[in-house]
Amino acid sequence: MSAATARDLAIGLMASFLCGSAWASDLPVPAKPPAPVFTSTPSFSVTTYIWATAIDGRSATLPPLPAADISLHFRDVLKELNGAFMASAEMRIDRWSFLVDGQFSQVTSGSTLPGPFFSALKLRSQSTTLQGSVLYRVHEDAVLALDVGAGVRLWNLNNKLEIMPGLANLRIDHGESQMWVDPIVGARLGVELGGPWSLTVAGDIGGFGAGSRLTWQGLGSVNYAWNENLTLKAGYRALHVDYRDDGFMYDVTQHGPAIAATYRF
């Protein structure tokens, strides 16, 4: 990975889906499914996941250095990755759901510099995304469950550039941090596929100039209920943000397959 691309790397959900069915006119009408039961007793779930992200876009996260195009496969990101943490939690009570989703990652890249005056360059990039949402269940039957709601997504990007001394015996350190909050609105649809299988599709959109110019994300997953408490999931997720502030620009899309495990208690 070139230094120009590495300096701008800051590894820092949802679309609509409808489905339905019709009965042939000569078939008997099935019994009406029982109405869903909502309870005032809260239930909780915790999800851990791995998201194999590729990154595409354009960013300038260390002004006054110029903007650079980014087009990285997951294997490129993985080479520079120091560590990452991704998890979400949800509390349900009656028709309401309260969700928190967070991601943190750090990458470090470096290269040698030509000439005798400086020896090497190192860049450390940290990215944190934290989202809080409130959803309300507007519909639920034996097959479909639809939630709509709103929330906020917080972004924090922190980059530090170090140029190591050579013959000049001069060390250069330059850092840049940006934090902003985006309002979002979104929806989540669950579809029972029969037996332990189900489908989840979710999406949100926001920013609207309050934080970023625009942010959106989409997620689709196929789920398998291993038992009453544990559900395994596999799907695809994309997350986009376009944020600009003077010379700072972060206009990127992260996208790739994801696997997750949700435990309910």
Structural features:
12 strands, disordered N terminus, 265 residues
What is the string of SSEs from the N terminus onward?
A: HEEEHEEEEEEEEE
- Residue share in helix: under 10%
Instruction: Tally the helices.
Output: 2
Q: Give the overall average pLDDT.
A: 84
Shape: elongated
Number of strands: 12
Runs in which pLDDT lies below 50 for 5 or more consecutive residues are 1-33
What structural class results from the helix and strand content? mainly beta
What is the spatial order of strands in the main beta sheet?
A: 1-4-5-6-7-8-9-10-11-12
Give the N-terminus to C-terminus distance in angstroms. 44 Å
Largest sheet: 10 strands, antiparallel, barrel
**Computed Rg:** 22 Å
Roughly what fraction of the amino acids lie in strands? over 45%
What does this structure look like?
The chain is mainly beta and 265 residues long. The protein is 4% helix and 66% strand. The protein contains two helices and twelve strands, in the order αβββαβββββββββ. The longest helix is centred in the N-terminal third of the chain and has 7 residues, at 74-80. It is elongated, with a radius of gyration of 22 Å.
Please write out the topology.
Blueprint: H1 3-6, E1 43-51, E2 54-60, E3 68-72, H2 74-80, E4 81-93, E5 96-112, E6 118-140, E7 144-165, E8 172-194, E9 197-206, E10 214-225, E11 230-245, E12 248-264
Antiparallel strand pairs: 1-4, 1-12, 2-3, 2-12, 4-5, 5-6, 6-7, 7-8, 8-9, 9-10, 10-11, 11-12
Short note summarizing the structure:
It is built from two helices and twelve strands; from the N terminus they run H-E-E-E-H-E-E-E-E-E-E-E-E-E. With 265 residues, it is mainly β. A ten-stranded antiparallel barrel has the order 1-4-5-6-7-8-9-10-11-12.
